[in-house]
Amino acid sequence: MLAHYGLLVLILIAGVIYSISARKLTPAAALTGAIVACLVFAGAGYTGVAMMTTFFILGSAATSWQKHQKQDFANTEEHQGGRSAAQVLANAGVGGITGLLVLLFPAYTTIWILMMAASFASATADTLSSELGTIYGRRFFNIITLKADQRGLDGVISMEGILLGLGGSCVVAILYTIGFGWSNSSFIWIMIAGTIGNLTDSALGALLERRGYLGNNTVNFLNTLMAALVMLLIYLI
Prior knowledge:
The chain has helices at 2-21, 27-64, 67-70, 85-104, 109-136, 159-180, 184-209, 216-236, and strands spanning 141-142, 156-157. The protein is mainly alpha-helical. 47% of the residues are buried.
């Protein structure tokens, strides 16, 4: 067990150093991410850390991809100088909470870890669909009115973006099944929950964030929470 935690410490130190030096995260955000990763590891082991790390890598890559093309229609201010601690908690906080729930209520470990996977699937789907959808999307529409709308605005989506987000959820679902054993139902559930969480983000963006009622961090936290709750509902049914 000590060897496992020793390896985790080395991974976290490497991750903190890289994320700060590459300006992916602020120092506070990197330390916050390390703490969240410890909770994720305590609940789901290296599979949980792999899901969280994959979200971070894919999200960072998607944010950096064709960045110059996004400047005219997307808000890149939140990424200047690296993501903040609040942004880390907004995207990975639910994953950390479910890891803590495994420690507090181990009898329900299966559902807690499924909820964790769903939250990371949603976070990954949201980032890929928004960051890459704005680049590769062809027709953009408001998720509430279904009318054509300006790409880059809160609540505006494209079919290409939705599919890219689904791909992100699929990657997280694959990692879950590699770590905990293949299950068609779990694989599909994670993708469904992740996609619903992603669409929830867009709906909240159109209804509340665009009007200034909610901030981006709150919306991101709520979309991952929604994915986790959808997974809980599916599991109970």
